[in-house]
Amino acid sequence: MIDPRRTATAEDSDLFLSVAPGMDTALFCGLLGYLADTLAFDFQYIDAHTTGLIDALVRAREIAPDVAATAKACGLAEADVARFFELFCTTQNVVTCFSQGVNQSAQGTDKVTSIINCHLATGRIGKPGMGPFSLTGQPNAMGGREVGGLANQLAAHMNFNEPDIGRVGRFWNAPVMAHREGLKAVQMFEAIERGEIKALWVMATNPAVSLPRAGAMRDALAQLDLFVVSENVLSNDTVNAGAQILLPAAAWGEKDGTVTNSERRISRQRPFLPLPGEAKSDWWIVKEVGRRMGFAAAFNFDSAAGIFREHAALSAFENNGTRDFDIGALAALTDDEFNALDPVQWPARAGQAKGDSRFFAEGGFFTPDRKARLIAPDKPAPSAKVSQEFSLRLNTGRVRDQWHTMTRTGLSPRLGAHLPEPFVEMHPKDAARHALHDGGFARVRSPHGACVLKVVVSESQRRGSIFSPIHWSDETASSARIGDIVAPATDPYSGQPESKATPVAIEPAAFAFRGFALAQTPLAMPAGAWWSRVAVGNGTGWLLASNETPDIWREYAKAMFGTDAEIAEYIDTPRGSYRMAAFVEGRLVGALFVGPADAAPHWDAVKALFEAESIGDAQRRAVLSGKSTDGLADPGPVVCACFGVGFNVIRAALDSGAAANVEEIGKALRAGTNCGSCLPELKKIVSQKVGNNERAPQTA
Ligand SMILES: Nc1nc2c(c(=O)[nH]1)N[C@H]1C(S)=C(S)[C@@H](COP(=O)(O)OP(=O)(O)OC[C@H]3O[C@@H](n4cnc5c(=O)[nH]c(N)nc54)[C@H](O)[C@@H]3O)O[C@H]1N2
Ligand SMILES: Nc1nc2c(c(=O)[nH]1)N[C@H]1C(S)=C(S)[C@@H](COP(=O)(O)OP(=O)(O)OC[C@H]3O[C@@H](n4cnc5c(=O)[nH]c(N)nc54)[C@H](O)[C@@H]3O)O[C@H]1N2
Ligand SMILES: [Mo]
Fold first, then answer.
1. Domain with 39 in it: what CATH number?
2. Which of 235, 249, 533 is nearest to 412 (CA)?
3. Are residues 331 and 255 in the same domain?
4. What is the pLDDT of residues 300-331, one digit of tens each?
5. How far is the CA of 396 from the centre of ligand 2 (A)?
């Protein structure tokens, strides 16, 4: 496991390498040299099926000549690097899985080629249990590429070279084909910023949150002459950036079509929900716009099946085995056959009984000479250096229970219970050096922007590197759109931004008061307050921090909750405490609790009463105490989201002997028995059960 920070995935690994940010190329260059020195190369494969080994090896030796040099470049212990090399060398069945820790870098292409070089040189590709394996992120990332959904591709995996352009033009009878690549995402938004692009149609992405320099990108959207968004939701940061036309798109579960997984298998996606309101499939919307622009014949579809047949026909057009993506066998499916289609792996060439289930074991690469190219990478280095002012590297990524910009997972109370606040995680020594403490707040700043985040201190972080999740936006938090801070440096080939290595400054952000609010309908939090919005049963919750005194919050409460409800209040001015609860017909419909930061009110008991269908008199009297009347212990932070099992409950089961390992936890509490994504955390809790005062796990 190679990652600057020790993640939950690392818990399962035999060897964990806390690589210095961006230095994977040095590690795999060192490995290539080691494989050469130990005669681990497969010369037969190299000679028959590859070119470029000598150049790649010479460069690899320049970048990382030996174990010691590799360890130094990667910030690793020599013994660990030696062990990694030995493991790779002596294990025939090696799959190297990589995702955004490798790709999202200004040298991401070099990182990937340095990995692929090691597999090509050992012939470990295309055979069972071997190969470089790019874990694509989006559920249908493969399908997106097949239909040409990238700025540097034509449909059906064709490229912007003259033969391909000509072929696609002939197939579609299109006289005015584009002759060069389009702008990739970051460059496209920079062109909007410069006023060079005047019209934009955003479909199924939320760039005002997810792009580097997101704040500037959002502002650029407002300058467009025409700004259209196709969305599932009425409000997100991109829509709110000034969309003039909002098209209601069908969401997952409502859609009809196909998706492709990482083993090139195309599966039917069938809707199981009716289209709500005016919503239409994205394909229907595109087709109607095409027709109304005067291209009725070109957009002559009335079903997903019709589009799929044309897609399949293009993949086979003038192919004759020269292009890997060929699903010609599916070009003549009837509507009924399409509806009943079983998952099918490509290539599925017309007239061929079964396609190749594996590529490349015997070479046959899709290059003009059918040989793979080993490529010499550039010397690795993150694109921007740290400085005295910006002395830490900001790494950004995902947490277990949220998806991207939270437009859908953010609606789930169960998922929101796991990590309800945007945070920045850092090593204890870095925290001490910047006068920060666990549970406090920090302002993280780069030349591009700033966020205010909850501090999580953790040994899992590498020193000098801090981590923040990408999920929060202006919809869900006061100041946590992490893209605002991220630098826009991109890889020259892939266009991927370096989203995991921006130099940043960090300083404490102090709040005298903390608290929470609960309401059945969305509320606007007062300007100046720090807040994080969380889905809860029956409504919405906000975790709050502020420097405004409780009497000012009392004024806010009046504006927030109106006058229809029956209001109970508790005011303790000397202690700096204000609590209010709103009731309608025996139900708790709203609450606002604010108190001194060092004795901040917890919301667990009040949230439980808010989520109850009705509450009794005793409970009603106890609401303002903030404590549960039924003596329930605080379950602690949620570990298993499927069954809502908290850390304290799991620890209690281990302490009492009710469970001694992960399986017994599953039997006793059900935790970990459904989706299994909390299993690494459960293992960690079991293995940590040494002292009694371990901190609850904070990150997924
Ligand atoms: N729960 C959840 N799952 C998701 C998603 C989600 O939003 N939520 N999104 C999906 C999508 S679209 C994608 S693309 C995938 C992404 O999946 P991953 O790539 O696994 O996710 P990330 O959290 O972006 O980053 C991966 C790791 O790279 C590490 N890293 C940072 N810098 C470096 C480096 O220089 N070298 C190395 N070796 N590692 C580094 C980070 O510390 C982080 O732990 O996840 C998919 N799955
Ligand atoms: N700093 C930093 N930035 C990153 C990353 C990182 O690790 N660090 N990761 C990057 C990666 S790998 C990714 S994939 C992106 C993700 O970033 P985005 O793609 O911007 O994030 P999503 O929240 O997935 O946005 C999808 C939007 O489409 C809507 N939607 C969902 N389904 C449909 C549909 O069927 N049709 C239509 N029309 N709309 C739909 C959703 O409501 C949502 O608003 O973020 C990237 N940005
Ligand atoms: Mo992604």
1. 3.40.228.10
2. 533
3. yes
4. 999 999 999 999 999 999 999 889 999 999 99
5. 15
The DSSP code for 393 is E
How far, in Å, is the centroid of ligand 1 from the Cα of 267? 25
699 alpha carbon – ligand 1 mean position (Å): 13
Q: Calculate ∠ Cα 628-631-636, nearest 5°.
A: 70
- Residue 699 pLDDT > 60, yes or no? no
Q: Mean pLDDT over residues 132-152, rounded?
A: 91
* 136 alpha carbon – ligand 3 mean position (Å): 7
Dihedral of CA atoms 412, 416, 421, 422 in degrees, nearest 10, equals -60
Residue with the nearest Cα to atom 10 of ligand 1? 137
Contact (CB, 8 A) for 397 and 100: yes
State the residue range of the domain holding 22: 8-128+369-373
- Going by alpha carbons, the residue nearest to atom 19 of ligand 1 is 100
If asked whether residues 194 and 327 sit together in one domain, one would say: yes
What's the rounded mean pLDDT across residues 58-68? 98
Looking at 468, 489, 508, which one is the last position of a domain?
508
Q: Are residues 315 and 214 in the same domain?
A: yes
Q: Are residues 84 and 189 in the same domain?
A: no
Q: 415 and 179 in contact (C-beta within 8 Å)?
A: no
Flag whether 340 is in a domain. yes
Number of domains in the chain: 5
- Ligand 1 atom with the smallest distance to the CA of 23 is 35
Q: In what order do the strands lie in the sheet with 577-584?
A: 530-536, 539-546, 513-519, 587-596, 577-584, 566-572
What is the amino acid identity at position 341?
A: L
Contact predicate 478/525, CB 8 Å: yes
Q: Domain with 400 in it: what CATH number?
A: 2.40.40.20
Q: For residue 499, which ligand has an atom nearest its CA?
A: 2
